[in-house]
Amino acid sequence: MELSAFDIATFVGFIAVVVGISLYASRKEESTEDYFLAGRRLTWWLIGFSLIASNISTEHFVGMAGSAFGRVGLAIASYEWMSAVTLVIVAWWLLPKFLRIGIYTMPEFLEYRYDGTTRTIMATYLMVLYVVALLATVLYSGAKGLNGVFNFPQILVDRYGMEQSAAVFWATIGGIWFIGIVAAVYTIYGGLKAVVWSDLLQGGALLLGGAMVLYFALKLTGGGTLGDDGGVIGGSLIEGWSRFREVNADKLHVILPWNDPEVPWLAVFVGGLWIPNLFYWGLNQFITQRTLGAKSLAEGQKGIYLACVFKLIIPFIIVMPGIMAFQLFGDALLAKAGGDVSKAGELAYPHMIAVIMPTFLRGVMLAALAGAVMSTFNSGINSASTIFTIDLYTKYINKKATAKQQVKIGRIATAAIALFACLIAPLPGKFEGVFNYIQEIWGFISPGIVAAFLVGLILKRAPAAAGKTALILGPVLYAICRVPKWIMEAVYNVVKLEGGGKQLQQLVVAADGSQSYQPVGGFAQTLFDFNNWAFLHHMAIIFVILAIVMALITAVKPRRKPIEYPRSQIDTTVHPRSYLYGSLIIAATVALYIIFR
After folding, report:
1. Distance between CA 154 and CA 170 in Å, rounded?
2. pLDDT tens-digit series, residues 382-396
3. Would you call 461 exposed, middle or buried from its count of C-beta atoms within 10 A (0-12, 13-18, 19+)?
C-alpha cells in the first residue's frame, strides 16, 4: 500500500499530539512519587484506559488474531474474557491490601511479607523478563504489523532496489528503532503521568481503529464489494454477522477439549490460565503501577471495572476479524505464507486493514497501530525503570538517594532499558508465533510469583524461606516441563499424528546406505509427550507443587507471629457499588461463555 502525503501528515500529526500532551501533562514531576506513581493522583478513567492501552498492542492484533485465523478460533478470547474476572478479584481482594500498605512496586510487598532477598529475586526476574519477553515482543510484533499493513519492505524494494529478504530485515529494524525512540523520549521525561496520558490518546485510537476494521469486515462479509481505492461498498452488517456465524460455526466455540494443546477448557476454568492471569493483572508491575498510582481505592476500583468492560469487548474487534480474515482471504494469505498457517495468521489482521480500510483512514490506522505499540512499550520501560530504581538502586547502590537522584536514575534507566530492548527485539521472530512466545516465556516466573503472593497472604505464618523457595523452584520446574521439548524438536524429526499427538523420529542409515526415519520411543517419547501438554497445564501443576512445598515449610518452621504490615495515608474506603459492578462483570462473562460455548 503506497502512502500518500495526507497519510504521512495524519500519522505525524497524531504522534506529535500524543508526545506534546504527554510532556505537558507530566511537567514538574520532581518527587519520587510524582515520577513513578504520578503523584498518586490518577483518576478512574485514566487508570481504565491506561490498563487497556498498556495491555493491548500489536502482539494481540498480530498474534491473537493470528491464533483465531488458525485452528483455535474464538477460543483464544478466553485470555480476554477470563481477564475480566481476574480483574474483579484484583479490585475486591488484592488492590485494597496493596494500597493499604502504600507500596511503590510489587517486589516491595515481598519484603514486607518475607524479607529483602525475596524482594530482590522478584525484582531481578521482572527486569529480565520485561526486556526479553515483553519489550522485545512489543517492538518486533509492532514493526512486523506495520510492515504487513503498509508493505514498507516492498517500498524499499521498489524505490531502492533492495532484495526482498534485505528489505524485510531493514524495514523491521527501522520500525523497531522508530517506535523505541519516540516512545522513550516522553517516557524518560515525564514518567508514569506521561505514560497514562499517552495511553488515553493511543488507547482510544486503538479501540476506535479496531471497531472500524470490524465494521468494514462485516459489511464485506454481508455482500459488500471492495472499492477501487480501498474500503467496502454496500453490504449489510446484519447479513454479515449472520453469514459470519454460519460459515465459521466450527470456530465460534470458546470451549475446546480438555487436552487441547493451546486453550484446553480444563485450564481455562479450573487450571493454568488463572496463574498467568493473576500474575499479569494483579502482581505484575507493568500493570499494577497504574492502580498503585490511584488517588484512592475507590478510584482504582472504578478504573479496573472500566478496563473489564473493554476486556469483554476486545475479542469482537480483534479475535473475530482474525476469523473473518480466514473466511475472506484465507487462500491468498496461505499462499503468501507458503502454506504455513501460523505465518499466514500473523499476516491476517494487517492484510485486513490494508485491503478493506478506505484510503483516507490509512494514516489514522498507521497512527493507531504505532500508538498501540508505543503505549505498551512506554509502560514496560517505565515499570522496569521503577523496579530498578526503587528495588535495586536505592536498596543496594545508594541507600541515601534523594528524590531528585532517584528521578535522575529513573530517567537514565529508562533510556538504557529502551536501548537494550531495541537491540534484542528481533529475537521473538525465531519462535513460532509472537503470542505463543510471550506466553511461554512468562511461564518461567509466573507460577512462583503467584504462589509466593497468594500462599503468603493466606498462610499468615509462612516464613521467608517459603517465599524464596517458591521463587527459585518455580523456574526450575517450568524448565523441566518445557525445555526438553524445545531441545528434542531441534534434534529429532517431529511428525504430527492424526489423533492430535506428535511422534519423535530419528534418521537411521542402513548398511546399504539407504536412509529412513524410525520412531524414537522409550523415555524420550514419554518425556516429549509430557512436555507437549499445553503450557497452561504445566503452570497449574507447578503452582500446586509450590503451594504444597510452601505449606510444608510453614508446618515445619512457621513464623513466630503473623506479619504486621505498615499503614499508608491513602484513602482505602471501598467504592459503595464495587461489589455490584464486579458481580455484573462476572455475570456478563458467564453469559458470553453460554452464548459461544
Report:
1. 11
2. 899 999 999 999 989
3. middle
Of 428, 536, 446, residue with least CA distance to 482: 536
Distance CA 263, CA 524 (A): 25
Rounded Cα distance, 390 and 412, in Å: 13
Place of cell 521503577: 386
Contact 525, 509 (CB under 8 A): no
| Neighbour tally for 89: CB within 10 Å | 18
Half-sphere exposure of 162 (CA within 13 A, CB side): 16
Tell me the mean pLDDT in the region 504-519.
84
List the grid coordinates of 250: 466450527
Domain residue ranges in the chain: 5-236+284-442
Residue with cell 458467564: 590
Q: Are 461 and 554 in contact (CB under 8 A)?
A: yes
pLDDT at 143: 84
For residue 486, which of 518, 434, 527 has the smallest C-alpha distance?
527
- Helix 164-221 to helix 362-387 angle (10° resolution) is 110
Q: How far is CA 530 from CA 179, 272, 292, 480, 485, in A?
A: 40, 15, 40, 10, 9
Gap between the Cα atoms of 61 and 113, Å rounded: 38
Distance (Å, whole) CA 105 – CA 272: 25
Helix (H) or strand (E) holding 473: helix 464-491
Residue found under cell 505465518 = 343
The helices-and-strands tally (H runs, E runs) of the chain is 27, 5
Report the C-alpha gap between 369 and 205 in whole angstroms: 8
Residue where the block lists cell 479496573: 304
What's the pLDDT tens digit per position in 300-313?
999 999 999 999 99
Task: Give the C-alpha separation, 85 to 227, whole Å.
Answer: 41
Residue in this structure with the C-alpha cell 477448557, named with its chain if needed: 265
Find out whether 455 and 466 touch, Cβ atoms under 8 Å: yes
Q: Quick count: other Cβ atoms within 10 Å of Cβ 324?
A: 28
Alpha carbon distances (Å) from 285 to 51, 288, 359, 431: 12, 5, 39, 26
**What is the chain's Cα-based Rg?**
24
In this structure, which amino acid lies at residue 6? Answer: F
Chain center to CA of 270: 21
CB atoms within 10 A of CB 215: 16
Q: How many CB atoms lie within 10 A of CB 402?
A: 11
5-236+284-442: CATH number:
1.20.1730.10
Q: Which residue has the cell 512489543?
A: 138
Q: How far apart are the first and last CA of the chain?
A: 39
Is it the case that residue 433 has pLDDT exceeding 80?
no
Q: What is the dihedral of CA 216, 217, 222, 225, to 10 degrees?
A: 70
Query: Coil, helix or strand for 166?
Result: helix
- Summary mean pLDDT of the chain: 87
- Which pLDDT belongs to residue 162? 87
**C-alpha cell recorded at residue 395:** 536498596
State pLDDT tens for residues 206-228: 788 888 889 999 999 999 888 87
- 51-60, 112-121, 578-587: range with lowest mean pLDDT: 51-60
Cell numbers that stand for 220 in this block = 464485506
Q: Is 565 helix (H, G, I), strand (E, B) or coil?
A: coil
Task: Give which of 215, 145, 69 is closest to 369, Cα–Cα.
Answer: 145
